[in-house]
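note to self — DONT lose this again. spent like an hour looking for the file last time. sequence + predicted structure for the chain T wanted, 230 res
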Amino acid sequence: MSATASRPTGPGRATAPRAGRFARPLLIAFLLAAAVDLAGLLAGLDTVHLVAKPLLMPLLAGYAAVRGGPRLLVAALLLGWGGDVFLLADNDLAFLLGMGSFAVGHLCYLTLFGRDRAPAALATGVAYVLVLAVFLVLIWSDLPAELRVPVAGYSLLLTAMAWRAGVLGRYAAAGGALFLLSDALIATGIAEWPRLPAPDFWVMLTYIAAQLLLALGALGAARAVRPQGA
């Protein structure tokens, strides 16, 4: 065997280590952007939120990509970015477009989770369905009439994603649950229910944590099934 042939080189081996060097800086940048966004919300600085929020999901998607994460994970995070940007505009059309972008992202998550043949916990699924049904019954009359069906359909899809996320372990399961909580907080705002102080802070805190935990869960699962030396 020649010296050249014996070297462990090639596109995959050469590119992956180089790309992997950017993983930690991207994760740190994501966490810093998250901290700035949350601080801006607590301080009531709308401009800070407008600048920091659109940075979050591209940074997290970049982190997932350089870690060798599944394409469906990267796509779901980028679709979340699309939803984030649309929801910065305060009108019904932007809300529907943002919800649609998130919905496609949830389909990406569901497809990704479906690759794992482990069954999702039936008891957890039943609990999620009961919580969703009670929540929709309570909030239905307080939602604008034109948003009731879209919100119900989106909520069903989100609940399915949150339930199925459990097949990837505790991180992903917690991420799915927090995503559900975050969107429930948004829905209560639309319905003009009483809200916590600094409501946007709590929406973003649960959302950021949800996406990060889903990403970590998916990356951990992908690493566990990756062949040695891949």
